[in-house]
Amino acid sequence: MNTDCQLFLPEDFVHFICQKSVLLYEKYDLLIFRESIDAYVRMRLCINSECQTVVIAQEQPSPKRVTCTNCNNSFCFKCGNDYHAPTDCKTILLWYRKCADDSETAHYIRAHTKLCPNCGSCIEKNGGCNHMSCYSCKHEFCWICLGLCVFIFLKKIFD
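Request: output the structure for the sequence above.
Response:
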């Protein structure tokens, strides 16, 4: 829902527009439900995607644990993440962001590097031919098959 939009549509008009698509109306209904929950500072939907139960805080919202009465899932009422005491919400959000960055780095390393077959050092191929030389142990090998380059070179000569 766009909160900047000032246009008000009556419920029966929306129902008329969505009457050919039950799925579209259910999606609209869910958005209205979520917005109505968000309007109350002491209410929040359970963060378990399969639950969708409304959790009501007994005190004013603060970084504290609440437990869903339906699925027994505990979470931080203030930020809506898994419960993270004694860490405050700002710190945990920074931590999640750093973990996501680290995950992207790990994905890049897995996709663009290989281990030297001799010493296990991490090797990155940054262009050129497939003949690699390990910086750590000076072992020469083929990037594609990790075999010794000397044998590959001799095989090409004698074949």
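The two ends are 68 Å apart (CA to CA).
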